[in-house]
Design goal:
single chain, about 50 residues, mainly alpha, elongated
Length: about 50
């Protein structure tokens, strides 16, 4: 799994700060945040399983 691009990282950061874009761009914003959260949880799970 790759790291997000600079633009994606900035979008994730402003989303986590509670700032929302207008529709229909908000759907992409929320989808990107959900994918990022899933990646973080998968990495945590893999880390726990490999201990």
């Amino acid at each position: 799994m790759n790291s997000p691009t600079d633009e994606q990282a900035a979008l994730i950061k402003i989303t986590m700060e509670g700032k929302r874009m207008n529709y229909p761009d908000r759907y992409d914003q929320e989808n990107l945040l959900n994918l990022h959260k899933a990646k973080i949880h998968l990495e945590m799970t893999i880390g726990l399983l490999s201990q």
